[in-house]
Amino acid sequence: MDCYTANWDPLGEAAYYRKLDLYTMGWNLREDLRDCLVAAAPYGGPIALLKNKKEKSPSSRPPLEIYTASGVLLASIPGKNCPAVHLGWTTSEDLLCIQEDGSVLVYSLFCEFKRRFSMGNEVLQNHVLEAKVFHTEYGTGVAILTGAHRFTIATNVEDLKLRRLPQVPGVQKPPSCWAVLCQERVTVLLVAVGQELYLLDNTTCSPVTLPGLSPHAGSFLRMAVSFNYRFLALFTDTGYIWMGKSNLKEKLGESICEFRAPPKQMVWCTRSRSKQRAVVMAWERRLLVAGDAEQCIQYPLDEESYLVPELDGVRIFSRSTHEFLHEIPEASQEVFKIASMAPGALLLEAQKEYEKESQKADEYLREIKDQNLLPEAVEQCIRAASYEHEPEIQKSLLRAASFGKCFIDKFPPERFVETCRDLRVLNAIRDYQIGIPLSFDQYTQVTTEVLLDRLVLRRLYPIAIKICEYLRLSEFQGISRILAHWACYKVQQKDKSDEEVAQAINQKLGDTPGISYSEIAARAYECGRAELAIKLLEYEPRSGKQVPLLLKMKSSQLALSKAIESGDTDLVYTVVLHLKNELNRGAFFMTLQNQPVALSLYRQFCKYQELDTLKDLYNQDDDHQELGNFHVRASYASDKPIDGRVASLQNAVDEYYKAKNEFAAKATEDQIKLLRSQRRLQADFDKPYLDESLHDTVYNLILEGNHKRAEQFYRDFKIPDKRFWWLKISALAEQGDWEELEKFSKSKKSPIGYLPFVEISMKHHNRHEAKKYAPRVAPEQRVKAFLLVGDLSQASEAAIERKNEAEMNLILSKCTAAADASVVAKINLAKAQLGKK
């Protein structure tokens, strides 16, 4: 702490830069970095190395190696025979290996080949001279310079759309330098040819003049775009450095260095709210930090080094070391700057003196409190702690902040608690074995969820789970997701049996919320372990998730059983229809025979969709009853001529007799007989009779006056007497043929009595006809008949004759005192006489 500012280097008047040691690299490289293609992913990501192929022998295949940022080997595979031109990382930490023939190979973090895509035929024919991998809001892109000095660009490798950019005029040799810019959501290229600059978009190539560019600048040799693509820097052969915004409309500054040779690398070193943005350039043995100031910062390089631009600085690694160069944040300057009187610096001193039990602690505190700056002092210490990489310095600053909090009323603790929590997470992942040297600003940018994804990608499941538990993330967001990834990785391990892997996964996962065993089983199936996938599906509680995968695995019988167990008819239908398409007809029917529920549902389906199949099912089962029903439905469901319908019904009769259902057979025979009779009627009278019921047929015949034909139906179909008489009197009354009705009533004794004649006549408002039949009504119904025709006198006589007091009371309720006085007197006298007896 006493020599804390010893490695601070000023750049201009207000800014300081420093290099922090991150790791002593653990890789034992046999060759220098200059002999390798190098790519390092941002946000403390992995490092890929591919040794340049010097030997021309076809058998020589240099290895592709991927390391953590601390130099721990993650994976290694032999390279491809086609020479690689460039390596780059996607935002999801997949490695892009761009080949000389224009093909791009995509590898995972563990050198697992994922896919391959081509940058087009033109690139294939002219080969790749240079390539760049860039990141925009659309995703990860690739830009190619071909041997024909033309550019091809793809802004998103996940959704490949190639664009061939216009040619730079008069170009006879490759451009001296070029860079990818993002202007107003459009990806463009800035190309330097000697002292000329050109801007290439989809359709045009425009010359560009930089604002404020020195007339003696010279030819452009290097370009650098900032991490966020907002700033641009160019280096010329006179040592002149121009810095400005990437929209090429505003200059930020310029600088001149003593070097004339182009740097091997040039990158931006900047941060949000930077006081002095800078460009970092690396030569063979020299590192230069240049800003808008007269003096530059120079660092010696003992080894060949590689620069990795970051959100808030630059990572610099070589064979032996890994460092982080960045601008000192304002909070750290305020607290640690020599002779600083900032409240944070005083609070840190106060805490130190307090630990020494010195009264100076009180003096420092009073000085801060007198200026009402204690909350600001606490904030400065918290912010400064977040920017530190050394745990001891973090603790010292956080102790000072905690000390100051004690003297503030109602100081919100959230910021302090969150910083402590975040620093503990960062210290854990910066460990050498994990090797993710995220800064606080980078961690804030990538978010906890993305950090967990990257730990899972590295298969660091224990530390990821520990972080979830420590941060108290929801199970669905944290532990469940990580365990699911672990299980998907576990199924790829071939050294254990299916039973052991399934048990291990179930023992670890159990019924953890948010876990889908079907997804894990799908992964197992993709890895060629079908039996393991089936065992894992046994733990999946949702049949809707089990069945689709079982069908995909061609375990259709098991899928059908699971669907039936679920009780979900839609799921059963899905499996049955899948089986129908998968199996031949005989095997399909035999499968359904063993599953009665599925067979029943399939029959229901066939009733509405596939009648011929339904018939085949009944034939296979010798189900004569259902076959008979099928033929009956078929005779009415089609537009067959009458002979065809009769034939279908005759088939139904035969099936019913085979099923020993004589009632159904006789009823169907009668229907055949009715259809034939109706066809004759239709032919004789040219009126529609087909498909009418027997009742309607007879009724309509009577209405039309065809009494003989009606009686013929009565005899042929053995219609019951009562039913026929009801039909005939109803039809005659509706027709208004009262003479025929009277004649019919006298033809023989009515099996239904004569009250219906009275009721039918009154229904059609013919009281005169009704009165004819009232006297003929049986004695027990005669009172009701007379009441219907409104003859109270006759009704009273009938009631008195039957000596029925209830009927007498009913008649009395219908009488009026004035009009029916005689009837009332007669009934009252009869009731009195009944009372005496």
TrEMBL record:
Bilayer disposition of the protein: Peripheral membrane protein
GO CC, any one term: CORVET complex
InterPro entries: VPS16, Vps16_C, Vps16_C_sf, Vps16_N, WD40_repeat_dom_sf
SUPFAM superfamilies to which the protein is assigned, alphabetical: WD40 repeat-like
Domain (Vps16 C-terminal): residue spans on this chain: 515-832
Record's keyword annotation contains Transport: yes
Coarse class of the protein's main subcellular location: membrane
Superkingdom, taxonomy of origin: Eukaryota
Domain Vps16 N-terminal: from-to ranges: 4-417
UniProt keyword list: Coiled coil, Endosome, Lysosome, Membrane, Protein transport, Transport
Quaternary structure and partners: Core component of at least two putative endosomal tethering complexes, the homotypic fusion and vacuole protein sorting (HOPS) complex and the class C core vacuole/endosome tethering (CORVET) complex. Their common core is composed of the class C Vps proteins VPS11, VPS16, VPS18 and VPS33A, which in HOPS further associates with VPS39 and VPS41 and in CORVET with VPS8 and TGFBRAP1. Interacts with RAB5C. Interacts with STX17, MON1B. Associates with adapter protein complex 3 (AP-3) and clathrin:AP-3 complexes.
Family label: Belongs to the VPS16 family.
Function in brief: Plays a role in vesicle-mediated protein trafficking to lysosomal compartments including the endocytic membrane transport and autophagic pathways. Believed to act as a core component of the putative HOPS and CORVET endosomal tethering complexes.
PANTHER family: VACUOLAR PROTEIN SORTING VPS16, VACUOLAR PROTEIN SORTING-ASSOCIATED PROTEIN 16 HOMOLOG
Name used for this protein in its record: Vacuolar protein sorting-associated protein 16 homolog
